[in-house]
Amino acid sequence: MTHSTKGAGSPVYRPAPSKWIFTKEQMKNTANRKEGMSREEELGYRQLAAAFIQEMVDGLNNVKDPKMKIGHTGLCVAHTHMHRFYYWHSFKKYDYRARNEAAQIIVLLESMILQTIAFDLNIHLPHVNVLQIMEKVDKDEHYRSLKSCAFYFATDVIAVTDWCLRYSAASMSIVIIHLMAAYANVRIERLFADFMTEGSPWYAQFDETMNEDKLREMERDFIQTYRNSCQFHYASKYNLRENRPPLDHPDVRKIERTRDARSHSPMINHQQVPDSTQNGRPRGYVPKDELTVERYGFNGHLDTQNDRKCGILSVRCAVDAFF
């Protein structure tokens, strides 16, 4: 079922509000691909747009009152809406860097955005699924570092991939936990021992659509994308040894009832967050030669030496805290 909207710009034919997951074939028909842009080029623009949103959040969060700051989940929701918008519209026509006559452009685009997303403001982020799954399997918090690392790592998934247009939050959370466990040298069978039944994989009760082929395909896709986007890894700025997931989402509050978690959140304590251009680097930038992750558990081997240095963990500061 599709809907047609008219208003600012040309008519937009978009899916019904609940249909925001696209197939491989549909992803080949984005507005950018129709204009001749390759998938790699489009993904690069999406990553730049996500970085631009983060820059704006940094500026808006430069206030003393914590209540006035934009939370972590707010950032990820903005990233998701950006991905959705640029499925139907091209970067060439709607440049995220446009500043001329900013006020008029903002008013125009606000109307276009609301029509494009069909006024669907409900976003299901993988962060919540990650916390829910880890809460079930780790009630004693023996793997608290793994949970924190996976939570912030989910932000990288939203920012540097187009997965929010291709997979459900449940599927994304399964891959995130699996990859993080691999890099922490944690046997997934041990972590989910109480949830595995004979003949059923560990993820069966958390995502009915997941299977072994889909899991491997998503992992390969992510590793390739993440390896080529080191400058956009946001999770590396967090001090995961000390910080737990923030409590700026009602579902997260139900899961993480740590009284002081919010005061320790890096999104609340802005002074813990590096300046967006500190040392002349983009915010969250981690040079390849500074990535020191040397452990890997996916398929038992590394494809290249570059995978070892610039694989999926820019959150290298937390790896040494594991176990």
UniProtKB/TrEMBL annotation:
GO molecular function: cyclin-dependent protein serine/threonine kinase regulator activity
Region (Disordered): 258-286
An individual GO BP term: regulation of transcription by RNA polymerase II
Highest rank taxon of the organism: Eukaryota
Compositionally biased region (Polar residues): 266-280
Gene3D superfamilies: Cyclin-like (1.10.472.10)
The keyword Isomerase appears for this protein: no
Name of the protein in its database record: Cyclin N-terminal domain-containing protein
